[in-house]
Amino acid sequence: MPVPLPPTFLTRPLAHRALHDVAHGRPENSRAAVQAAIAAGYGIEIDVQLSSDGQAMVFHDETLERLTAQSGPLNLYAAADLANIPLLGGREGIPTLPEILSLVAGQTPILIEIKDQQGQMGPTDGRLERAVAKALAGYAGDVAIMSFNPHSVAWMADISPEVPRGLTTSAYDHDDWVPLQPAVCDVLRDIPDYDRVGASFLSHEWRDLNRPRVRDLAQRGSVILCWTIKSPGEEQSARALAQNITFERYLAPVPAA
């Protein structure tokens, strides 16, 4: 049976990669951005990648150069070395997932996106999934996982069946997903794995929310979240179907308690 999302995931807008703003010293997926999201009453969406020594690191990209002064694949570095690589625009290194969970400590819902490690959304060796499961063991706050890679979500269903899980989904326009093979895009576009992985929600590309498959899942009772809203106008359009949003670049309104 799918594990339902806790109600807080539907009432608090989710700050994309936490409430980041480098102009104010808060890089994406940083402790500072997480603390700012908590203070503002938002939920938090973060990403995880795998270090060379098997730790779940809170970081979006496969490589370091966009977000740090270093270059090369993140997975060539151990967690202790990544902790000493400063994030551009801030004063801190790359955090581990246990560090972020300790910081959040149940104060707000946290949605964890497990990044694809093999490059083509294919079968995974489970190393990152096991690291996420280990970090979540005993965590008492509202938490859920998702991934574009259905194989990652299936892994989590097996090793952490109590954790709510969903699929991150997209229109999968071929040009937007290079180097993902077009044939893979064509398969994933139809969201064929939703029932197989025991998903209870989607986080779908907001401009594609009118896709019939998404509407069908919504009518079946699935929770529909969306990514990534960047203005009040986009939020208004998305909320015609989506029950909550992932946002950045503006401050989404927080419903009154």
Textual characterization of the structure:
This protein has 257 residues and is an alpha/beta fold. It is built from 9 helices and 9 strands. Strands 1-2-4-5-6-7-8-9 form an 8-stranded parallel beta barrel, surrounded by 6 helices. Helix 8 links the parallel strand 7 (201-205) and strand 8 (223-229). The radius of gyration is 17 Å and the shape is globular. The model has no long low-confidence stretch (mean pLDDT 97).
Essential attributes:
single chain; 257 residues; alpha/beta; 8-stranded parallel beta barrel; 9 helices; globular
Q: Hey, roughly how much beta strand do the residues contain?
A: 15-25%
Structural class: alpha/beta
The 3D shape can be described as globular
Give the termini separation.
Answer: 31 Å
Mean pLDDT: 97
Give helix % range.
25-40%
Number of helices: 9
Major sheet: arrangement of strands:
1-2-4-5-6-7-8-9
Compressed to H and E, one letter per element, the order equals HEHEEHHEHEHEHEHEHE
Q: Which stretches are low in confidence, meaning pLDDT under 50 for 5 or more residues running?
A: none
Number of strands: 9
Main sheet characteristics: 8 strands, parallel, barrel
Radius of gyration: 17 Å
Q: What would you say about this model in short?
A:
The chain has 9 helices and 9 strands. It is α/β, with parallel strands linked by helices and 257 residues long. An 8-stranded parallel β-barrel has the order 1-2-4-5-6-7-8-9, surrounded by 6 helices.
